[in-house]
Specification:
This protein is of the alpha+beta class. The protein has 2 domains: 3-35 and 250-380; 48-246, Distorted Sandwich (Acetylcholine Binding Protein, Chain: A), CATH 2.70.170.10. It has helices spanning 3-36, 48-58, 248-271, 277-283, 287-311, 321-343, 350-353, 358-380; strands at 71-84, 89-101, 119-122, 127-134, 137-149, 161-168, 177-181, 206-218, 235-246. Strands 1, 2, 3, 4, 5 and 7 form a 6-stranded mixed beta sheet that branches. The chain has a 3-stranded antiparallel beta sheet with strand order 6-9-8, with no helix packed on it. A hairpin with a 4-residue loop joins strand 1 and strand 2 (89-101). 19% of the residues are buried.
């Protein structure tokens, strides 16, 4: 190899390195933007008066009954613990309180006037934790420990945000009751604020963006046995929402660090491919050795992939899975590449043997990182 060729090869290595570094920067920038991107919900309720105005404006109250006959029950919630028991189940504990006009309390043995319609676990016989009078009102506080089920999307894992909603219905359908968020009982309910949750709560791999109340529109294809027109109405369903952001570092260490390690080892095995006898003896290169190395790495990737799929068995392909699929493709490519190179020039293309297998070595990182950057861009931006 003459001096010119050495300089040319050096330039190509520099170009390969710069392009690969650029791909890393692109991936990191997209990750950063996705990870920090969250805008406070613009439709959240900020006060009890605003909640009443929202009900009048957004929902057809006359379809339920005359507005004058509606009974508003201010209802607040405070979470003490929170845990994902599965990909679609959330266990929560805490307190719910309701404020009544003392004169309208129906019995000296009050019962909780709320239910969790999405409850799949825990007792529905809520424990009365406290009762006290504030002016002309009586406040009843109930302790709850329930498991709720709702459908979450994990397609952006591990850069996903989750909104866990705690939907509340009145316990009695036929009494024209509307649950009103007890927003006056919190210090601050401004957009972006976190309230109604213990400051020392442990939520594992998550961070809290904000909490807020809102109403969701409920429409059902049944009359629940009341009358034929009942199922044609719009129902304001009170929800307390908890917006979460996954801690990216944990998932990065668990899944991406092993994948990057495998990628480095595959590159090392590719660098050992040579036609020069001295280097062959030094590196111990032969086709069988490459198959052994790639097979061992395949099982590492496969086991990690299986563990990931167990978490999201009901979802389609999540973002990070594309990296696993890319590793499978690279492994197969390296085996095919090494096989044809080992057969000699008469059985393979000349570019495989140019400069002692230089081209596959040069394009390894640009192809790998470029594919990762393309997948990231298409998934989050495109």
């Amino acid at each position: 190899m003459n001096v010119f060729n050495k300089n040319l090869v050096t330039r190509w290595w520099w170009l390969s390195s710069v392009f690969s570094l650029g791909c890393i920067v692109v991936i990191a920038m997209i990750w950063y933007q996705v990870d920090i991107h969250y805008q406070p919900n613009k439709h959240q309720l900020l006060s009890e008066d605003a909640a009443k105005a929202h009900l009048v404006e957004e929902f057809n109250q006359t379809s339920l009954s005359n507005e004058q006959n509606l009974q508003y029950i201010p209802t607040g919630i405070y979470l003490q613990s929170f845990k994902f028991s599965s990909s679609n189940d959330v266990r929560i504990t805490g307190y719910i309180w309701q404020r009544y006009l003392t004169a309208k309390l129906e019995t000296t043995e009050p019962k909780a006037n709320f239910i969790f319609p999405e409850q799949v676990g825990g007792s529905s016989d809520f424990e009365l934790a406290y009762q006290h009078q504030v002016g002309e009102h009586t406040v009843l506080g109930w302790y709850f420990d329930v498991t709720l089920r709702q459908k979450f999307s994990y397609k952006n894992y591990p850069l996903d945000h989750k909104t866990v909603w705690i939907k509340l219905w009145p316990a009695h359908f036929d009494r024209n009751i509307v649950l009103l968020p007890a927003l006056n009982d919190y210090h601050s309910t401004a957009p972006g604020d976190t309230f109604g949750i213990d400051t020392d709560i442990v939520i594992g791999n998550w961070e809290i963006n904000e909490t807020f109340f809102d109403y969701k529109l409920g429409h059902y294809d049944t009359s629940f046995g009341f009358n034929q027109a009942y199922n044609e109405q719009n129902y304001p369903e009170l929800s307390f929402n908890l917006v979460l952001k996954r801690k990216f570092l944990n998932a990065f260490v668990i899944h991406l660090v092993p994948l990057l390690t495998v990628a480095v080892l595959l590159f090392a095995s590719l660098m050992s491919v040579t036609a020069e006898q001295v280097k062959r003896e030094t590196f111990g290169f032969n086709f069988t050795a490459i198959i052994s190395i790639v097979s061992a790495l395949f099982f590492v990737v496969m086991l990690s992939h299986i563990q990931l799929r167990k978490q999201f068995a009901e979802d389609g392909i999540v973002y990070i899975e594309y990296f696993f699929l890319l590793m499978y493709f690279i492994m197969i490519s390296i085996i095919c590449n090494t096989y044809f190179f080992s057969r000699g020039k008469e059985y393979s293309s000349g570019w495989l043997h140019a400069q002692d297998h230089l081209i596959p070595k040069l394009i390894y990182w640009p192809l790998t990182l470029g594919s990762m950057a393309l997948v990231t861009y298409c998934h989050f931006v495109g």
